[in-house]
Amino acid sequence: MSENEQEKAAEIHQWFCHLHLLANMGDSVNKALKEYEKIITDGTGKLGRSQLPTFSSWSDKDSAAVRCIRTVCSALVSGGNASSGCPEDFKTYLFSKGKTCRLKRFEHTRFNIIFENAGAVVYHRNDIIEFLSKSSSSSLNMLLKSVLSDLQDQTIFQEILSVATIGKIITTPFLRLIDSKTVATHILDLNQHFLQLQINLKQWSKDPSDLISGETVLFPEVPPCKDDIFDAVFSNHMLPDTDVLSESASLMSTHLYLTVSRLLKNQLPEGCHGTDNETIREESLTVPKHNRTSEKNFADFKQIRHFKPNSSIEHIEATFNVG
Question: What keywords appear on the UniProt entry (predicted)?
């Protein structure tokens, strides 16, 4: 090969799975909310169950809002807490009201789960409070008491509402954009969408009114899904006191702006893949937008090892081959 051909062959384009951005966005939101909770509680960060002496020995590594979302799912979703949860009773209660449970388990579900479940918690909030309040306080175990005390805290609820808003307007359309086989079919086609995301987040960090109104369409090709959860989320925005909603949305947008700017820098202007030229487009023609297949294999492997710890390598390999 000529010297130019050797240099071209040695050049490696580094691309990244864009689904991982969603996982990092979840972490950023959690960090932002924990920071916000310390601001509004004079540094204690105590909201909901943390204000009760009964839970003084319980650790809180997450923000109160994310903790609430997690404990709700742990208590009321199949596959959650087997000893203290009551998912079947809750399903029966919802069935009597003509509803189905929209909550999802956290385990083995990594991408976008915190945002999806935030919307489901908003949707089911009144159902959950009514369901748990029907029992006497003495008959509720500690997990269910934790869920009830957190959901009855208006500050925590508005924070969850803010997370659900980001899920409906930003992260779920982003997930559909990455998964789509008809929109942004080439990985470089995502550049314009990433730039728009960065621009909007910077704007919302100063004034999130457009975000929390529910009228913004961040990615026109994949608009928000206006289902019953969407209606529940944005009808609650008409609450008389929405300062927490606005302030938390602003702070989360700031954290998300920094996360997006850091993780997507290669495909933003000035990045190594920020320019859509024909050479790079041709060389990256077969690059996928995500690495979901490999992620699924790792998740399947983890699940097999969890439920079948004595499985042989041959059994695991056969399971993957059949799948």
Answer: Hydrolase, Nuclease
